[in-house]
Design brief:
Elements (H helix, E strand, L loop, with lengths): L9 E7 L6 E6 L2 H15 L6 E8 L2 E8 L16
Antiparallel strand pairs: 1-2, 1-3, 3-4
């Protein structure tokens, strides 16, 4: 792809199955696709209390975490409610 000077933004979903452990990652150039995968991975892996799932935006300027499951304060993010018990 030719470099036309436009910044390239990539979206990464990272799943860690234990604190400090390796991460499984997926990369997309479309944010909506990455967000769909993020939600899907919450559905598949989110019930394990040790799992952390992050949606990260990466540009030439660095990385920015857009979403984290579970939310940093231990509660699910509002758009991803916890399953009923």
């Amino acid at each position: 792809m030719a470099d036309n000077g436009d910044p390239v933004t990539q979206y990464c979903v990272k799943v860690q199955f234990e604190a400090g452990g390796p991460a499984v990652t997926g990369w997309w150039s479309v944010e909506a696709t990455a967000r769909r995968c993020y939600r899907d991975w919450i559905g598949v892996y989110g019930s394990d209390p040790a799992v952390v799932i992050r949606l990260v935006e990466e540009t030439a300027g660095g990385q920015r975490v857009l979403e984290t499951w579970p939310a940093r304060d231990g509660e699910p993010a509002p758009e991803h409610p916890a399953p009923a018990t």
